Amino acid sequence: MGDHDDLRKFITDLAVVHGRVVLSSGREADWYVDLRRVTLHHAAAPLVGRVLLDLTADWEYDAVGGLTLGADPVAAAMLHAASALPRRLDAFVVRKAEKSHGLQRRVEGPDVAGRRVLAVEDTSTTGGSVLTAVHALREAGADVVGVAVIVDRGAGEAVRAAGLPYRAAYTLADLGLVA
After folding, report:
1. SS3 117
2. Has 101 been labeled as part of a binding site?
3. Do the annotations mark residue 156 as ligand-binding?
4. Which parts of the sequence bind orotate (predicted)?
5. DSSP three-state, residue 161
């Protein structure tokens, strides 16, 4: 098995939780994909980085990140996986709101102004979180080349409607789940 198959197994074994839940979008579902159980797992996190780098290998970008908290471990995994190639890749964190103290930055980490960046998320249903990050990145002067997620729960249409390329490593069908 390769990285893609290995990561899918981690997701189905560790992250898919069955039972009634309310998603951040307000929608209800009979299952939840808790990808933090994978993105923060010692053996799965390196796979996350390699799979997402492979998924976006034909896109040119030199920094990766998204809205805290879902994007943070994804970006860190990609940063570390890239360093093993070696590939120069920075990571950043987009705050939900601008800080009122210190440097008052909304995008933390290396400056993204004038840089080609990739917006990431662990999973996305409506695209709201990742599009919030895209807006903040553009305000900070970044050139957002696209959006990539580990698991797509349906956000692709909204992201593409916003004029951005969108890729997901896995669909719900890939994981044996029905929307």
Report:
1. strand
2. yes
3. no
4. 125, 153
5. helix
